[in-house]
């Protein structure tokens, strides 16, 4: 029974390390694809944004994705809402336009940061605990291997090498699992810092550009034309009503 329990514990340790390895490489694949997409989306939107003739034209950019695009759209939405005005009076909507814009950009950047940092805690945990999990299996296996050797009454190399060698495999696997996790964690952490600095610079430039327009985003030309046409129609309708009222008044006077 002791040998059976020892084998079960060592096997459980190896299965745990195997699960750690699967999770690690799965996260490396997912985060790698995520960072490739983020880099491409940021490059495409950043190029389109800075090639726009002005901030008002940039506000009409659509169909873009990625952290930079979402930060920009959050800023444009805040400026449009401030231009229209709001009847809500709470702490979230207090302050002038620049304060509202700074707050909105900061909140959106924090959301993007949380998305980019997802999974890194798991990689850090695996990288720091996998060697100790393997060491636990090794120590437990060696302890019971020595007990079995003492019971056999022989300490020759062929008797000692087998059980202790099998126990040491757990430590080797633990290190093999921890190294990719630590490397991936440091790599993605560095990439996140680069993206965060890029977002911070973009948000600063966005605020400076908005300051030049007095934090006002003009409405699209098509929308303005529609509103102008509606205003003309209303004016013509009011004029027709006035003329009809005047004709009725004249008819009543002639009849009298």
Task: Compile the SSE list and pairings.
Elements: H1 2-50, H2 55-58, H3 67-84, H4 97-117, H5 120-152, H6 157-212, H7 221-255
Molecular shape: rod-shaped
Question: How large, in whole angstroms, is the Cα Rg?
Answer: 35 Å
Major sheet: size, sense and barrel closure?
none
Q: Termini, distance in Å?
A: 122 Å
The mean pLDDT is: 80
Strand content: under 5%
Structural class: mainly alpha
**Count of separate DSSP helical elements:** 7
The total count of strands amounts to 0
Along the chain, the helix and strand elements come as HHHHHHH
When the domains are counted, the total is 2
Helix content: over 70%
The unreliable regions are 222-242
What does this protein look like?
The protein has 256 residues and is mainly alpha-helical. It has 2 domains: 2-218, no CATH class; 220-256. Helices cover 84% and strands 0% of the residues. Helix 1 packs antiparallel against helix 5 and helix 4 (97-117) runs antiparallel to helix 6. The N and C termini lie far apart (122 Å).
């Amino acid at each position: 029974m002791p040998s059976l329990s020892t084998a079960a514990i060592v096997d459980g340790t190896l299965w745990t390390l195997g699960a750690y390895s699967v999770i690690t490489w799965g996260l490396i694949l997912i985060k790698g694809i995520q960072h490739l997409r983020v880099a491409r989306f940021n490059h495409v939107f950043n190029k389109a944004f800075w090639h726009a003739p002005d901030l008002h034209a940039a506000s009409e950019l659509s169909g873009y994705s990625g952290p930079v695009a979402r930060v920009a759209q959050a800023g444009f939405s805040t400026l449009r809402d401030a231009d229209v005005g709001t009847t809500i009076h709470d702490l979230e909507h207090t302050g002038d336009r620049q304060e509202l814009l700074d707050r909105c950009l900061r909140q959106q950047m924090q959301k993007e940061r949380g998305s980019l940092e997802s999974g890194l805690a798991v990689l850090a945990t695996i990288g720091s605990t996998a060697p100790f999990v393997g060491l636990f299996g090794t120590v437990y296996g060696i302890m019971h291997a020595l007990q079995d050797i003492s019971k056999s009454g022989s300490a020759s190399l062929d008797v000692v090498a087998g059980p202790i060698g099998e126990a040491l495999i757990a430590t080797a696997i633990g290190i093999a699992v921890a190294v990719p996790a630590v490397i991936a964690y440091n790599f993605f952490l560095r990439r996140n810092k680069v993206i965060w600095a890029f977002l911070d610079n973009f948000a600063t430039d966005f605020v400076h550009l908005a300051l030049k327009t007095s934090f006002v985003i003009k409405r699209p030309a098509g929308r303005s034309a529609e509103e102008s046409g509606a205003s003309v129609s209303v004016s013509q309708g009011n004029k027709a009503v006035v003329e009809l009222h005047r004709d009725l008044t004249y008819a009543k006077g002639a009849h009298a």
